[in-house]
Amino acid sequence: MGLHMNDIHTPTVQSGPSSIHPYSSGIRAGGTSLQDLIEERTQAEEELKALSSVLDIRTTRARIIRLRNDYKSLMLRIEDGLHAHHAQARNNPSPSSGSASSQAPTAAASSLEAPFAKVNSVVAGSPAEDAGLRAGDKIRRFGEVDWINHEKLSKVAEMVQRNEGVSQSMLR
Description:
About 50% of the residues lie in helices and about 5% in strands.
């Protein structure tokens, strides 16, 4: 094939004779009418448009193939890195990694006990005052209710109604 296609994104074709009527010095050869020439131009434009969409499809396919190959290569590098990391951790257990793993549950537990309510006021002589609650305290847990399941504090109200007169645990 005489065409050099080093880069699929910018194909080049050398100038040469066209496939439509030959012209000599810009003058129409033969007795082709203006209407026929306009019709041929329309056909040539449609063919060029169709060919450009084929080029777009080929370019897109080539890009997808490159991206897939890059992705596969990246995933293999990540996999190799993970294997090396875990092999090193297995062969060289360090004391600092043990303390980090023991701190992880504490960090998870503290995030599970995030405050979900703030005490605005405490009525004098109420069970809340007897329990030591003060205005401004942040409630992290009230019985079985926490920040995940309090449902706009409706669960706290249900818990109080169900357990009236019964002592409940609370974490502030």
